[in-house]
Write a structure and sequence with these properties.
This protein has 9 helices and 18 strands. Strands 1-2-6-3-7-17-8-16 form an 8-stranded mixed β-sheet, with helices on both faces. Strands 9, 11, 13, 14 and 15 form a 5-stranded antiparallel β-sheet that branches. Strand 4 and strand 5 form a beta hairpin. Bound molecules: zinc ion. The site of zinc ion (ZN) has 5 residues, from helix 3.
Length: about 400
């Protein structure tokens, strides 16, 4: 029952693909089947759990292992969804073990970490070690797209009237599963994404002098953005763990047909933020720069993604406790910063300590032959268990 690899095989065999905003339907999409598997498992084991739908068919599953008298609550969080399977060169939902690796969609990101958390949690319930913290396990939805699951959880647990009975208030420390090679991610960058529009005046392309070409205008903005992006790393100090702030233009769209002078063009901007950067001022900096460079009007949409960076200002003492838990199981590891975002920054942005820890290498996440090292999944299960005991003493 507590074998994390058995749990992982079950989880990989149950598709939970995030359609990533595309209009896709079918059995493999959304987390419905995996949520049902988790609910069944807790029901069978007689473990208290709750299922909270945050959108139709999208349900956060929480379970609790209570330790009466302990003032400390640890949240173990892993997301249920995976990225799509387009282009994969292995059967995505047929977990296969070979050469010490388990292959399949989600094995690395983050069903390996989720299975390790689940195994640790089931072992806590079974063994009831004396000195342990209260432990809440949350298996949340939609991490890969718009973070519906964690946003709902954070909003509720900080509201003073939480619909989650296991999290009436924020936990003392949250451990978020993502592939970290068993190091502790104490800081990471965030992302702000938004669209910029230019307008023009359409006319027949045989008389372009009668119109205003929105694509030419956008080209000027894009050149200015390229300059801005090149100067950005030098314009503010890089974070010691996460590196510099960056900006990239990722999409462009405009025009109706080749014989019409286009009256509209739009681009999508990806601005990676480092700890302490505030999305409003980041966007304002870009706006002011562009205004100084061009003499026509353009418009900024409100951001469609606003994912904060994770700062290491809150999680220091707790990550020290984790370093000791890791050392007991696998020897010394380090605190690191990474470029990718996680649920931890959503929790930390609400003022509550969180760090990221899990088996697997981010280099294998989302790949065409995704895999995770089995030994690391087992080690992670041991370390999560150990931390839930070590954390009982506080930090
Ligand atoms: Zn992930």
């Amino acid at each position: 029952m507590f074998d994390p690899i058995r749990l992982l095989k079950d989880m990989v065999a149950i598709p939970s693909v995030n359609p990533m905003g595309r209009d896709l339907t079918g059995e493999e999409y959304f987390e419905t089947k995996l949520s049902a598997y988790l609910a069944d498992l807790f029901r069978r084991e007689g473990i208290p759990f709750e299922a909270v739908a945050v959108a139709p068919g999208r349900t956060n599953i929480l379970a609790k292992c209570e330790q009466p008298g302990s003032p400390i609550t640890v949240l173990l969080d892993a997301h249920q969804d995976t990225v799509p399977v387009d282009g994969m060169i292995i059967p995505p939902y047929e977990p296969r073990v070979e050469g010490g690796r388990l292959y399949g969609r989600g094995s690395c990101d983050i069903k390996g970490g989720g299975a390790a958390m689940l195994a640790a949690f089931l072992r806590l319930v079974k063994e009831q070690p004396k000195n342990r913290a209260n432990v809440v396990l949350s298996l949340t939805v939609d991490e890969e797209s718009t973070s519906l699951g964690i946003n709902h959880l954070v909003e509720q647990m900080t509201s003073g009237r939480s619909v989650y009975k296991f999290l009436p208030k924020p936990p003392d420390i949250s451990v978020v599963a993502e592939p970290t090679l068993l190091d502790i991610v104490v800081a990471h960058r965030g992302a702000v994404r938004w669209q910029i529009h230019t307008s023009g005046r359409a006319c027949h392309s045989s008389r372009p002098q009668d119109g205003i070409n929105a694509i030419y205008r956008m080209a000027k903005l894009v050149s200015a953005l390229e300059e801005f992006a090149a100067k950005l790393p030098g314009s503010k100090p890089a974070h010691r763990l996460c590196g510099p702030a960056t900006l990239s233009v990722g999409l462009i769209n405009g025009g109706l047909s080749v014989n019409v002078v286009p009256d509209h063009c739009v681009i999508d901007i990806d601005r990676r933020v480092i700890p302490r950067e505030v999305s409003e001022s980041v966007i304002a900096d870009v706006f002011n720069y562009l205004t100084s460079k061009v003499d026509f009007e353009f418009t900024f949409d409100p951001p469609f993604i606003c994912s904060p960076a994770l700062d290491d200002d809150l999680n220091g003492p707790w990550s020290d406790v984790m370093l000791k838990s890791i050392a007991k199981s696998v020897g010394p590891k380090t605190k690191i910063g990474v470029a990718y975002g996680t649920h931890a920054s959503r929790i930390a942005a609400a003022g509550h300590p969180a760090f990221v820890f899990g088996p697997g290498d981010i280099a294998q996440a989302h790949t065409k032959d995704e895999w995770v090292e089995i030994e690391q999944v087992r080690q992670a299960a041991e370390i999560y268990f150990q931390f839930c005991c070590d954390a009982a003493a506080g930090c």
